[in-house]
Amino acid sequence: MLKFTDTHQAYPPKRDAEDRRRDFAEIYKAFGDKAAALQSARCSQCGIPFCQSGCPLQNNIPDWLKLAAEGRLEEAYAESSATSTMPEICGRICPQDRLCEGACVIEQSGHGTVTIGAVEQYITDTAWGEGWVEPVRRGPDNGLSAGIIGAGPAGLSAAEKLAEAGCSVTVYDRYDRAGGLLVYGIPNFKLDKAVVARRVKRLEEAGIEFRLGFEVGRDAQLADLTDRHDSVLIATGVYKARELSCPAGAPAVPALDYLTASNRMGFGEAVADFDGGRLNAAAKRVVVIGGGDTAMDCVRTAVRQGAKSVTCLYRRDRANMPGSAREVKHAEEEGVVFEWLAAPDAIMGNAQGPTAVRAHRMRLGLPGPDGRQAPEIHPGSAHEIPADLVIAALGFEAEDLPTLFGHPDLTVTRRGTVKVDGPSLMTSVPGVFAAGDIVRGASLVVWGIRDGMDAAGSMLKWMSAQRARVAAE
């Protein structure tokens, strides 16, 4: 260990930008055994591992880095998977620069962070290839039944932990495939869908039932599920797109509609709005409005669809962009143009489609309530950016779940997210819990995984206590 003084930081080989513009394959090649061991050995084995505190899952990062450096990969996988239900997925899509790698002591010392995410992916991909990933170890049947609304990261993680405890688990999801945004919101060049499918298959083989194409509010009410199960988890995520506030002569396309269409095309499906051109960027001048990871997914998808040009419009500067700095770099390499400190004033066009985005230059003023400098319009800076396709990637909000689920007693916050008791994640409805983005607002996959596992523990405690109470009466 401690090789950071004489071994430079290195990531797995990245495909050439011109090459990766042509397809949706993942952009990083796999770490070789020697390279992965060498990078793992750069870890300083801190007495107080800040990388671990920077990880929402509190992964035992120094431990599995040491094991990987010593070539003890099966043990490294056991250590990695002990705290995470999806380590190879987190290794691919977590913004490590803002989490574990950003907190790395080696990074702070100026030697360049340990490439934690790439090693995490390497360890688990190796485990899958070698057959070390065991089936879910179901506990003895405890006679308890749990229903989960939503098959995204939070729902899938909770389902696994509840099955391990011996519960009967049914997962309900409105989509035709399990995985939530992992399947339909994240492009293949960041997360190959086969990686998600094998996780779902492992849960199916454990006896977890998936009711897909099932929409709570249409096919059943929340009360129906609480009658059917001993406990219910709401893990729907947030899917309602924030809308542009500027006038629009032609409509902007919601980011999730655009990404879902592209991912469905990747599955070989026919998508009418893609074939008709509405959700297809080929040969178009594309403008994406927004600065988060969803915006980065949109601009990089448009490049691969053969857009004539791709511009990202963001109202703050590069330093204040909420998306991953690594994703911005990838996008720039692939030819995306960033208009920093620029915000839309109007979308020009007609029923046939947009022709341009009229924008203003912005400047950063005094910090707002959130501590971030508030953007202000720079007078006399209006300009137009030609556009044939405008995509709005301004983030997501919660749907009106009390109305949608037919349960007005379900309490929500001012933002529309489900209100829970902090420690237990129980909602205002007894026996109904909530986890992930529907509680936090749009957040990271890794937080959804953490919340799902925490919620499963709370559900087990509550169901066991209820059964004990009934038995005592």
TrEMBL record:
Keywords: 4Fe-4S, Iron, Iron-sulfur, Metal-binding, Oxidoreductase. Residues 20-130 form the Dihydroprymidine dehydrogenase domain. The keyword Acetylation does not apply. Residues 148-447 form the FAD/NAD(P)-binding domain. The keyword Transmembrane does not apply. NCBIfam families: gltD_gamma_fam. This is NAD(P)-dependent oxidoreductase.
